[in-house]
Amino acid sequence: MSIPVTVLGATGLVGQVFCERLASHPLFQIETLVAGPESAGIPYGEAVRWKRPGTVPRSLAGLRLAAPPERLPTAIAFSSLSPEASAALEAPYADAGAWVFTNAATHRMDPDVPLVVPEVNGDHLPQALAQDRAGAIVANPNCTTVGLALALAPLRPRFGVQGVRVVSLQARSGAGLIHGEFMELEDDLHPEIPGEAAKMAQELPKILGAWSSGQRLQPAELDIRATCMRVPVTHGHTLCVDVTLSAPATAAELHDAWAKFDGLAGERALPSTPRPLIHVDQGLAAPRPRPHRDRGDGLAISVGGLSPLDTEGRQWRFVTLSHNLVRGAAGGAILTAEAAHRRGLLPGTP
Ligand SMILES: NC(=O)c1ccc[n+]([C@@H]2O[C@H](COP(=O)([O-])OP(=O)(O)OC[C@H]3O[C@@H](n4cnc5c(N)ncnc54)[C@H](OP(=O)(O)O)[C@@H]3O)[C@@H](O)[C@H]2O)c1
């Protein structure tokens, strides 16, 4: 089966990962690529500053870029638009009937917009049907929040999570392309990424919250404080997490909870599902961005560096790593669209 889709923001870093992954996807097939008006009419392979391994997918290189159309030609769109373009375009497209799976922050906290990490809260997806629109917007969380949500999800049902303190070490590619290149950062770091810590504190309770049909979402009660730094790594966000559990746990029990986690029943074995979902690294030397960010084709996360912070087993420190462009953006959004398809939510598809 091939469901035609549009990629909005196809020339950006996240858009390139959409193109890379959708060029050979079993469900979705790219019909239209959209970027800024200056690139309209130019073949994708000429307009894009390709930053992915290898070359532009052959099937897409000759496809001419479109400027944002009045109305989308397909019922499904993946968006990696800049924040400004997202604010101008996504809601009108959804109002006109499209399902827009977006990576931009614009609509993440809108009450009826599901904010989805499929294995954690794919059951929130039908919330999109409550939107007062002919179509819907479904949002991907901030790239840093995705990894933390996946690392905490296995611990909550067994031990309860009361609070987290997190320091993130975020890759340069998280800042997008700047004049066609990665952000410059060498032998230095940026100690605070503006707005990032606040996004994490808002988004995590929404993702981990409870939702059922006809009800308002109940955010999870969680004390979260974050410091978000930019570091000279190309791809892969590393988080140093101090977690306080409600019930005591041993290191073996925590490792076991992560290793066995494969997510919500409805979201297992989707076309892009990684196996395993969480790689558990024993000891303190891993995970690290370069050797470990591509695990599970970039969709798995890694957890390691576990050490106790008290003698009762309630406070622990660990490190988690995820690929910001794949699990934290395009790959995650495609997985979410696969989950929406599995749940029969996508318009005009069997
Ligand atoms: N980078 C990450 O790790 C990451 C992770 C999660 C979420 N996000 C979010 O995902 C979105 C894309 O991020 P990115 O890193 O890929 O950014 P990027 O490299 O700056 O790409 C932005 C894209 O938006 C397009 N665009 C800008 N203005 C437009 C307009 N008026 N009409 C149509 N298209 C327009 C650009 O096209 P032109 O090339 O023609 O200008 C480009 O394709 C952002 O909202 C970002 O916050 C990024």
Description of the molecule:
The chain has 350 residues and is of the alpha/beta class. The protein folds into two domains: 3-140 and 330-342, 3-Layer(aba) Sandwich (Rossmann fold); 143-322, Dihydrodipicolinate Reductase, domain 2. It is built from eleven helices and eleven strands. The protein has a six-stranded mixed sheet. A five-stranded parallel sheet has the order 2-1-3-4-5, sandwiched between helices. Helix 8 links the parallel strand 6 and strand 7 (223-230). Helix 6 (143-152) packs across helix 8 (196-207). The longest helix has 13 residues, at 83-95. The radius of gyration is 19 Å and the shape is globular. The model has no long low-confidence stretch (mean pLDDT 97). It binds NADP nicotinamide-adenine-dinucleotide phosphate. NADP nicotinamide-adenine-dinucleotide phosphate (NAP) binds at residues 9-15, 34-36, 38-39, 68, 80-83, 85-86, 103-105, 143, 173-174, 176-177, 324-325, 328-329. NADP nicotinamide-adenine-dinucleotide phosphate (NAP) is lined by residues 9-15, 34-36, 38-39, 68, 80-83, 85-86, 103-105, 143, 173-174, 176-177, 324-325, 328-329.
Radius of gyration (CA) equals 19 Å
- Measured as a percent range, the helix fraction is 25-40%
Number of strands: 11
> Secondary-structure element sequence?
EHEHHEHEHEHHEHEEHEHEEH
Q: In CATH's first tier, which class of the largest domain applies?
A: Alpha Beta
What quaternary form is this? single chain
Number of helices: 11
Please state how the strands of the largest beta sheet are arranged side by side.
7-6-8-11-10-9
| Largest sheet: number of strands, sense, barrel closure | 6 strands, mixed
Average pLDDT number? 97
